[in-house]
Fold each of these.
Amino acid sequence: MALGSKETSQPPSSDDFALDGEGPLFRQIERAITGMILRGHYKAGDRLPSEADLTTKFGASRQTVNKAITELAKQTLVARNRRAGTVVSARFQETFQLPLPDISEVVLERGDLYEFRILKRDRVVNGESGMTWSAIPKGSALLYLEVLHLANDAPVQLERRLVNLAAVPRIAKETFNDTTPGKWLLAKIPWSSVRHQLRATAADNALAGILGVAVGAACLVVERQTFHLAVPITRVQMTHPGDRFQIDSLFALSGFENAD
Amino acid sequence: MALGSKETSQPPSSDDFALDGEGPLFRQIERAITGMILRGHYKAGDRLPSEADLTTKFGASRQTVNKAITELAKQTLVARNRRAGTVVSARFQETFQLPLPDISEVVLERGDLYEFRILKRDRVVNGESGMTWSAIPKGSALLYLEVLHLANDAPVQLERRLVNLAAVPRIAKETFNDTTPGKWLLAKIPWSSVRHQLRATAADNALAGILGVAVGAACLVVERQTFHLAVPITRVQMTHPGDRFQIDSLFALSGFENAD
DNA sequence: AAGTGGTCTAGACCACACG
DNA sequence: GTGTGGTCTAGACCACTTC
């Protein structure tokens, strides 16, 4: 079971460049090379054969080989350099995909009953009455929404949202009888960039009352700011009771999804 | 400033298929199509021209057009279907890249002084003395490590780690004078899949004492399990004081990074 | 100077899904 | 059937970087 096969590992033999015949050729090549790296035939810092060599070894065109290796480079498994060649990375990926879907889908996915309630809905002026969104000039018209999301009647998320009314005037007439503001915005307004922040906070009195947890209880906060072509669209703070919500993500190198 | 240009948006004219001449052709095509979608010339559910048509409109080869659209499909901006064609997605990406680098780099990046202390180091048997890792058979030999990470002498992370000794026997001799266990493992042992969980917890007495926070303080917990070719390597719980640590991530559609 | 990756084209065959 | 994307090849030119 020992993985410490590095000390005794062999350099890649011609057999290691064998393909398994499953699926597209470029994926087979991807798997073959990933496999050699994972099995220690290529170690961190080692140089892979050039594309021209791989073309011969795999019996594929250069385009196909290039597509495979480009994909490995995107996964940060290798680094590519002109003239110097392709080198196995010393360190693996440090950025991971985390799914942050609409809370309604998380709840429904679990088979629970989903419901939401609009607690507040106010037109506010940026910078006044304690509402400030620094990405937007003071004095701008904003819509403030407070929405409680419930799973089987238990609160799982308090959503506190500011919407830039100059960018999304139509939202003023929307009543949100059928969809949540989050889904409405996602469907109506495209975005070009998104910023996320994750942190933990203790519930204050107001939050504790709304979420039905003890004062001081740990909560997971996801804050999201959405922009469209440099125009701020919406900023939302999603606060979850720490004991009823977590984010879960599984990542596998492509071709090795079933290696668990 | 209003973005509600959808109601008045025009169907794409031939001018919209103009390229800006910057960088590789496939990126120009990518930007051109992304731009048409973001500006509302193509709305959710609309069908893009076929690859053959785009080949003509952009004056590029099919390979090049295909590469551009394949990239858009990976970003979930469009969905591709044989026979039915390429359709603009009704909903945008719901999975985001979050950076989770080694804590030492986060601290050093901020310009703070970084230090770590190994608080505990025990050989344990899985299932005994309160240590259980369900991915591994009971009775397996594990190494338990407790490491405190500090920024400017203030604790920012408590790391509690289990290592599968059968998979990583060499770690038994490692003293971690120079590197943290996390970095050591990353450098020595490759992984093929990783699972992450994020949640908030309240500090209990022990945790509060170690982190130097009040009992009950909110903490952000990142749990990571790493596997290599189906073999569990390590499981680590990284607990951060909620007020001294957060995860931050900015994502932009490629080609629109400067649109903020 | 020469090797390596970056990109592009023209042409081809195939698989799938819809009518 | 037939249109659409999925994939592949052979060949080419170029840019960058190291030798």
Amino acid sequence: MPELPEVETIRLGLIPRILNQRLLGAHVRESRLRWPVPQDLNEKVQQHTLQGLARRGKYLLFDLGDGGLIIHLGMSGSLQLTPCEHPPGKHEHLDLLLENGQCLRFCDPRRFGAVLWCLEPQHHPLLAHLGIEPLAPEFDGQVIYRLSRGRSVPIKIFIMNARLIVGIGNIYANESLFLAGIDPRLPAGKLSRKQSHALAHAIQETLHRAIAAGGSSLRDFVNEHGQPGYFQQSYAVYGRAGKPCRVCGQPLCHITQGARSSFYCSGCQKRR
DNA sequence: AGAACCACCTGGCAGC
DNA sequence: TGCTGCCAGGTGGTTC
């Protein structure tokens, strides 16, 4: 599933290719996404110029000057630049038609994603309650320590809560906690200052590494060129239940937290 | 306010 | 080989 590094990779890849392009319209083939795609999307975007592409958490914000698009890739979404005449596949639900003859094609087999129009995307209700960006300079151990006081939820659930910290999905939550040497079951409020700093550092390190590697966390993820990413090959714990820890050799554990799989090493990751 | 749980969706895969 | 049924997972919403 596209996590923050994948979304950032897509954003960085698209910027030089679509910025300052005029939109000739939008072609919607399937409007039933997480929320319905606006019926009049074609009229909304027509003749607008793509002036910017920002990101908030995993939301991509396309600045069209007078309004903008909010796109979320959900769990299986991707965006590809492709010639307009290229026939769309089964799950390629909509095209944004560019003046250069290409289209930005939105594909999402599971339809958990979203394509919305908004006059002021930065102020959309969906973005209003989002927490701190883990890649922002002000994100550090002090922030984690302060946010986690008085909270009893397991630390893994805590770092995946987008109202507190945005963009950390299941895979990178598992990887970050391993790198920080923290047991995913540890109540957030029990985190020491030292652990908070280790965790902040581990989260940033994990995300930066994934972005540098081209960012991918799902077999069917493709970037804006249609190439698969390769970060999934270097997971330390995710999906490796029963296999030996790459650090200490102990078999890795698998538990369920908040209806999601957690993977950890009981030797390397401590509860205090 | 915080925590727990549910709904949405479909490709992929295990089991028969 | 083909069918059934379960799982994964981000996020907003509901319930406790």
